[in-house]
């Protein structure tokens, strides 16, 4: 049975879905009082680690999956879109968790506006950490809701060759430290050592190519008749799903996207 840790747990929507898929929750992280009460009611035996900004990940049990929807306000087209300058920009803390816990998979959720603001940085961070990614936008209408509410879902899969150092020991660096992970594209620094600086600014990170692919059964570049099998229901994607590219949103119909610093 796969185990998972939940970040930005809210009232446990993603957690419930993963449990219904046969996974076991090991820990959660949430600070909003009402949401915390809901979590305590439905997951009384699961520890709530609290504020993600204060967690020492070296003391947290490793899990097969880390899942969560980090705050969307920095990227949402409904707000000011301040990106990394928004105090609610907590993706770096999510990356810290992945960097230390080293899950086999990471599941990320956010608004579709993230594709045109900040998503390249997330892809570059994950690639530098040794994770390959696939993503797509799934509307709420795909699972029977009477509205679109397009949401970005990302699955990141760990490349096992990035997991140990030359001594066979697990890599457990902290955010902002220098590590000797090989570059995903085989690039090295001036010394040729392959050392990469992994900080919130991604200084010195070379451009990486990320294969864009579909997941959850949605065919990349598909028509309005494409079918999404979410594990809950199978539904036809409404025709409006791929008609709009407002604000420069890059849809997953692109076969290849180049991202970098």
Could you describe the 3D structure shown?
15% of the residues lie in helices and 21% in strands. It has 261 residues and is α/β, with parallel strands linked by helices. The protein has a single domain, classed as Rossmann fold. Strands 2-1-3-4-6-5 form a 6-stranded mixed β-sheet, sandwiched between helices. It has a two-stranded antiparallel sheet with strand order 7-8. The longest helix is centred in the middle third of the chain and has 11 residues.
Question: What's the helix and strand layout?
Answer:
Blueprint: E1 3-7, H1 13-20, E2 24-28, H2 33-42, E3 65-68, H3 91-101, E4 105-111, H4 119-128, E5 131-138, E6 151-158, E7 178-179, E8 196-197, E9 208-211, E10 227-229, E11 234-236, E12 256-259
Parallel strand pairs: 1-2, 1-3, 3-4
Antiparallel strand pairs: 4-6, 5-6, 7-8, 9-12, 10-11
Keywords:
6-stranded mixed β-sheet, 12 strands, Rossmann fold, 261 residues, two-stranded antiparallel ribbon, alpha/beta, 21% strand, disordered C terminus
First CA to last CA: what distance?
37 Å
Widest sheet, order of strands: 2-1-3-4-6-5
- Number-wise, the strands total 12
- The SS-based structural class is alpha/beta
Order of helices and strands: EHEHEHEHEEEEEEEE
The CATH C-level name is: Alpha Beta
**Rg result:** 18 Å
Low-pLDDT segments, ≥5 res? 174-261
Give the DSSP E fraction (strand runs of 2 or more residues): 15-25%
